[in-house]
Amino acid sequence: MAMPAKSSELHKLHGTKPETKSIQSPIPAGRPKYARNLPENLRGLFREVCKQLQERRALTAADGPLISLYCICWDRHQRATKKLIEEGEITTYTRMDNHGVAHQIEKPNLWLKVAETSEKQMVACLDRLGLSPMNRDKVKPTASNKEEIAANPMDAFLIRGPRPAVIFSKEQNREQHNASQQAKFTGAEDGDALTS
Fold it and tell me: Taking 70 as the threshold, does the pLDDT of residue 193 lie above it?
């Protein structure tokens, strides 16, 4: 049987804090750069998606490749749709039989497969970015500034990234130890001289 949740007064009395899931991501907000292979005509779409994510406080600097992939799939879908409108969804193709005689057959347009694949990839990108109705609430808002990050020390620790490691050799350690001992010794002699 599950225990009932403590009230805020009981938490205050016991000196505990209620367990709540973080409603904010520890990752700071940022603006991604264009991918090098992103065509000029897709940069407006890239900026538009970034603007929408920024308004939701869900844009980070690492989202660039995913947004670029969405833009490329969108462009592919536009070209395939244009061809489908021109040629139709069912197209007549020429096929040769075993005797070398050409026959006209109707088949689904090859551009239809390109359009459908692009649509699936676009939906997957939008889902992962939190721009679909099903996943919009799953994406946590980013930390908007350093004060919000500093409010939670564990988040600040996780974000700080790798620190440079300082490696000393035994000889350097020995030299530093001898130097500190020498400084203590000369400081003690100076102090003895002052008191006498």
Answer: no
Segments in 16-152 forming alpha helices (H):
43-55, 64-87, 110-129, 146-151
**CA 145 – CA 13 distance, rounded (Å):** 33
- Structure confidence by residue, pLDDT tens digits, 140-151: 888 765 555 556
DSSP β-ladder status, 90-96 and 102-108: antiparallel
Per-residue pLDDT, averaged over 165-186, amounts to 79
Identify the CA nearest to 60 among candidates 161, 137, 129, 158.
129
Q: Radius of gyration (Cα) for the chain, nearest Å? A: 32
The three-state secondary structure class of 11 is: helix
- Of 81, 69, 76, 77, nearest to 38 by C-alpha is 69
CB atoms under 10 Å from CB of 112, counted, come to 19
